[in-house]
Amino acid sequence: MSAYQHPRIRACLTVLALVLTALFAPGVGVLTDASEARAATKISHATATSMFRQSGITWSSSGGCSDRNNPTCTSFEQLNLATAQGAQTLKSASRCALNITGGTETGHASGTYSHWNGYKLDFSKSTCLTGYVKNTFTYIGVRGDGAPLWRSGAGNVYADEGNHWDVLYYNCGGC
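User: That's the sequence. What structure does it adopt?
Assistant: Structure tokens below.
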């Protein structure tokens, strides 16, 4: 296998291409202050699914669709690049099968760090993923709704919502 065919290198090259495209796209100017540098890079549904496919991450929806405005769909439209990379990092580090059941579609709780704003993904529960989260990350208590929480070393937060994991990605988790 040549270097560019290796899945991790190929994923990094994809991300690099996305970043360069975003930086040199028409209408994109020079950053003028630190607050602009913190703005999340948004990606399309097609870009996210390509990244997930390259990493062996699957996705599903109860409605069998990807319409962001339909709560029964699973959409990745306007997902933060760091969130997609965080899922790739989780897949690589855990070596667990990952299936995403919730993305940026409507129907989730609102807020700055929400699904709609591209910071969260829902993952199907599995023995592998649950064991990885509980044995690798730090238990930090319960959320207001009673969901137990674990924080990764990178600061991302994993909420056990009973039938799935709700993951808040502040960053890519060390990608």
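The helical segments are 7-24, 34-37, 45-55, 81-94, 127-136.
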